[in-house]
Amino acid sequence: MDLRIQENCENIDWNQIRDYLKLVGMGYHKPESHKKAFLNSLSVVFIFDHEKLIGFGRAISDGAYQAAIYDVVVIPEYQRQGIGRLIMERISQRVSNCNMILYANLGREEFYAKMGFHLMKTAMAKFLRPEVMKEKGFIQ
Ligand SMILES: CC(C)(COP(=O)(O)OP(=O)(O)OC[C@H]1O[C@@H](n2cnc3c(N)ncnc32)[C@H](O)[C@@H]1OP(=O)(O)O)[C@@H](O)C(=O)NCCC(=O)NCCS
């Protein structure tokens, strides 16, 4: 692997971001919405092998003491090779002064536990489409 780490949104193909999110079974939106979300994030990370995008992630934050991590993806053929950890480390560096929260896809809890995250006892969320989030197992 010839890894390149990019921490800005220059020359990102937002159709590809949508396609990768869809590929790994995560929530996806119109490409323009992903562009807006990443541009408005405090921390963004894109990982390339040669010129191929293989993973990404982002954090939104107040820049002072709170941050939330979203859209962490490694494409299937590159999973379990340390790329997810690299993405999390890079995202975390930019918000190292902050508490960090996220909601893990079912089955990914152990990955985040290895990154130092703990299950929350009182987390609550108000989703735009609660019935979908219930079906996916995110809420009771
Ligand atoms: C979850 C994901 C980002 C992990 O990325 P990855 O590159 O495969 O992870 P890494 O290789 O960096 O793994 C880091 C550690 O977590 C472990 N790990 C990774 N995925 C895991 C999983 N699904 N279950 C349990 N442990 C896992 C690895 O074994 C490794 O452990 P080690 O440090 O003890 O060797 C990746 O599998 C992915 O993109 N999945 C699909 C999208 C998704 O669910 N994203 C998360 C949204 S909440």
Q: What do the pLDDT scores average to?
A: 96
Radius of gyration: 15 Å
- SSE sequence, one letter per element: EHHEEEHEHH
Sequence stretches where pLDDT stays below 50 over 5 or more residues: none
End-to-end CA span: 41 Å
Percentage of residues in DSSP E strands: 15-25%
Q: What structural class do you assign from the helix and strand content?
A: alpha+beta
Number of strands: 5
Kindly report the oligomeric state of this protein.
Answer: single chain
What binds here, in terms of ligands, is: coenzyme A
**Tally of individual helices:** 5
Helix content: 25-40%
Gross morphology: globular
Characterize the largest beta sheet: strand count, sense, and whether it forms a barrel.
5 strands, mixed
Strand arrangement within the widest β-sheet reads 1-2-3-4-5
Itemize the secondary structure elements and their pairings.
Layout: E1 3-6, H1 14-23, H2 31-39, E2 43-49, E3 52-61, E4 66-74, H3 83-94, E5 99-101, H4 109-114, H5 130-135
Parallel strand pairs: 4-5
Antiparallel strand pairs: 1-2, 2-3, 3-4
Helix pairs in contact: 1-2
The protein binds coenzyme A (COA).
Word description of this protein:
Strands 1-2-3-4-5 form a five-stranded mixed β-sheet, with helices on one face. A hairpin with a 4-residue loop joins strand 3 and strand 4. The longest helix has 12 residues. The radius of gyration is 15 Å and the shape is globular. The chain contains five helices and five strands; from the N terminus they run βααβββαβαα. With 140 residues, it is α+β, with helices and mostly antiparallel strands. The protein starts with a strand and ends in a 5-residue tail after the last helix. Bound molecules: coenzyme A. The site of coenzyme A (COA) has 19 residues, from strand 4, helix 3 and helix 4.
